[in-house]
Design goal:
Elements: E1 2-5, E2 11-14, E3 17-25, H1 31-38, E4 47-49, E5 68-70, E6 74-81, E7 84-90, H2 101-105, E8 110-115, H3 124-133, E9 136-142, H4 152-159, E10 167-170, H5 175-196
Parallel strand pairs: 3-7, 3-8, 8-9, 9-10
Antiparallel strand pairs: 1-2, 4-5, 6-7
Helix pairs in contact: 1-5
Length: 197
């Protein structure tokens, strides 16, 4: 809760505006890391170890060091201003968990599609999902160490994005970088909402 002072000198409770933002993208793109890097609370994580039984469906090419996967969601919270709080919901990246996306997307203002240029095709499904449902999103290219860097326009063309969809570079491990991505999502979603009115 946020407290403010009235003209009469008494404290009054100011309810903050709360917004729901999804963090989506392919398997191993850094969604769990992104939520954890920026959350002001201990993030809720539903990670499980990758197993031999999942080997036929868990494509770890390009992310060979990955040992866990999100099986439901990640959850975190960040206060951008004293009256603006974002609730972050990280989606699972594997096809077999996509049935959860509809529930997670309910009531969302917007989304981040986290992209890994080593496996860019893995974020096609997230881009398609948000475009079909009219949910505003920003593509955030997670700049992994050692991964090739591409200009924004090259990423935009490769993903066949609408001209108004923001594309930004980020480091999902760095709080300030993630905050910039979230601000981009909120601004884009608000502009898209105003344009629909």
């Amino acid at each position: 809760m946020v407290y403010g002072h009235s003209d009469l000198g008494r404290s009054e409770v100011i309810d903050p505006i709360t917004l729901k933002i999804l963090v989506a993208g392919g398997f191993g793109a850094g969604k769990t890391t992104m939520v954890g890097a920026v959350s002001e609370i201990k993030p809720l994580r539903t990670e499980e170890l990758l197993t031999e039984a999942g080997r036929p469906v868990d494509d770890v090419a390009g992310v060979e060091t990955k040992t866990t996967t999100t099986v439901a969601m990640d959850f975190g919270r960040i206060t951008l201003r004293e009256n603006l709080v974002l609730y972050l919901f990280g989606t699972p990246g594997q096809d077999r968990f996509w049935f959860l996306w509809d529930e997670l997307a309910t009531g969302a203002l917007g989304a981040v599609v986290l992209a890994d240029t080593r496996r860019l095709e893995d974020c096609f499904a997230a881009v398609d999902y948000f475009e079909r449902r009219g949910i505003a999103f920003t593509v955030a290219v997670n700049c992994f160490d050692g991964a090739a860097r591409f200009p924004e326009e090259a990423v935009r063309d490769a993903l066949d994005l609408d001209p108004g969809t923001p594309v930004v570079l980020c480091d999902a491990r760095q709080r300030e970088s993630v905050k910039s991505v979230l601000i981009s999502v909120v601004e884009h979603a608000m502009m898209a909402s105003a344009a629909r009115r």
